[in-house]
């Protein structure tokens, strides 16, 4: 998936018809006139730091990770995660799975029920073509089990049983059974179905509600405690193995709580804990800078993703207009955070600047009287929640700390 040619179709990049594999050999500099702005960038040293942090954390705590690839939708970045020891990857749906299967990924967890005819037909065809392909599916109802079982009878003759995890949820949340009895009922339906195999449970604690981080962490811990009771019940009833069952939770904010409950405090046999954090790879300047368990770690995680924009106008005192908006940078969790100013090849911290509003193509920035900011200056925007910046860019330059372009990665949203 590296046979593309870089042309005007990839915004911001020079239109020179360069092969994607040759981007790093062009001697381009991101901020000195080679690229059109606004432009996104991935900092290579931050990516490596964050990969090492998660790799070492998983090894230290004896857990596995299947990073959620919907964060980046980039086979090149997923390849780095797998090379760094990832057990597999997570995707949200079959459309995402198709991309990574085409890229050569052999183990995927689809973190939602799959019920569509085209989706199930595709998975059955891929499993027939590649019997070693390992795709794990979630179910949270007897009806979803019935759909999978019907398809297994029709399409899975001669194949290994389809591995399935019971999805656990909480009141007001998204998918997942809401009671132990429902969990038992769904697990029993899987066990009774030909062609399916119950291999564990999964859930997602990352969106638990709460007034502040302390309350959200407490609620996440309570959900995981309840989830542990479901696992124990399934083991006690003989529906799930006490040895080697998969227990998969873990967004990018509370994965330490998953480790604490299912590795450090677990006494019900040896389960395999599979984290599904995705945003650890790039960290950020906002949401995960506040909530990641790695914050305060030594070494600390580094924000790897940023967007640079030009100052287009200083229309009135205290106000600057940047040429980047909702089409360019995440705004769903927090507004972008000005991090640096660049002028004439010199860069310094953007102290006192604050984005106050954005529209499609512009950001309004409050500028203190004592801060020098001129038309044509470049401003680095730190982002919050990297997922929704990645999905705005099809090709992202990878840069050194001094902004030499050394690579580029495709996204497939």
From TrEMBL:
InterPro entries: Ala_racemase_N, D-amino_acid_metab_enzyme, D-ser_dehydrat-like_dom, D-ser_dehydrat-like_sf, PLP-binding_barrel. GO terms for molecular function: lyase activity. The lineage of its organism: Bacteria, Bacillati, Actinomycetota, Actinomycetes, Micrococcales. Residues 304-400 form the D-serine dehydratase-like domain. The keyword Lyase applies. Keywords: Lyase. The keyword Lyase applies. It comes from Sediminivirga luteola. Belongs to the DSD1 family. Pfam families: Ala_racemase_N, D-ser_dehydrat. This is Amino acid deaminase.
């Amino acid at each position: 998936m590296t046979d593309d040619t870089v042309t005007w179709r990839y915004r911001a990049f020079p239109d020179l018809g360069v092969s994607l594999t040759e981007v790093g050999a062009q001697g381009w500099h991101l901020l000195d006139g080679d690229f059109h702005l606004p432009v996104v960038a991935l900092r290579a040293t931050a990516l490596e730091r964050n990969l090492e942090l998660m790799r070492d954390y998983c090894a230290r705590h004896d857990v596995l990770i299947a990073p959620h690839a919907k964060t980046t939708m980039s086979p090149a970045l997923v390849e780095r995660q797998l090379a760094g020891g990832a057990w597999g990857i997570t995707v949200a749906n079959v459309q995402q799975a198709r991309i990574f299967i085409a890229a050569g990924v052999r183990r995927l967890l689809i973190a939602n029920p799959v019920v569509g005819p085209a989706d199930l037909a595709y998975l059955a065809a891929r499993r027939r073509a590649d019997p070693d392909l390992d795709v794990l599916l979630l179910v949270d109802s007897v009806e979803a089990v019935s759909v999978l079982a019907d398809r297994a009878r029709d399409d899975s003759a001669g194949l290994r049983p389809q591995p399935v995890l019971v999805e656990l949820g909480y009141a007001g949340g998204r998918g997942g059974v809401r009671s132990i009895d429902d969990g038992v009922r769904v697990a029993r339906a899987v066990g009774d179905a030909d062609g399916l195999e119950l291999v564990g449970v999964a859930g997602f604690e990352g969106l638990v509600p709460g007034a502040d981080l302390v309350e959200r962490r407490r609620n996440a811990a309570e959900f995981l405690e309840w989830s542990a009771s479901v696992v124990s019940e399934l083991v006690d009833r003989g529906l799930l193995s006490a040895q080697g069952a998969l227990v998969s939770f873990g967004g990018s904010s509370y994965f330490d709580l998953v480790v604490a409950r299912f590795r450090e405090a677990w006494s019900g046999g040896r389960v395999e804990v599979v984290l599904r954090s995705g945003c650890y790879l790039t960290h950020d300047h906002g949401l995960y800078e506040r909530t990641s368990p790695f914050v305060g770690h030594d070494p600390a995680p580094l924000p790897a993703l940023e967007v640079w924009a030009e100052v287009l106008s200083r229309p009135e005192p205290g106000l600057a207009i940047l040429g980047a908006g909702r089409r360019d940078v995440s705004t769903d969790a927090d507004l972008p955070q000005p991090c640096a100013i660049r002028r004439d090849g010199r860069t310094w911290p953007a102290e006192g600047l604050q984005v106050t509003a954005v529209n499609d193509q512009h950001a309004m920035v409050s500028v203190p009287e004592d801060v020098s900011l001129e038309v044509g200056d470049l401003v680095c925007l730190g982002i919050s929640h990297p997922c929704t910046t990645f999905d705005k860019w099809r090709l992202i330059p990878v840069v050194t700390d001094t902004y030499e372009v050394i690579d580029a990665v495709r996204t497939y949203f």
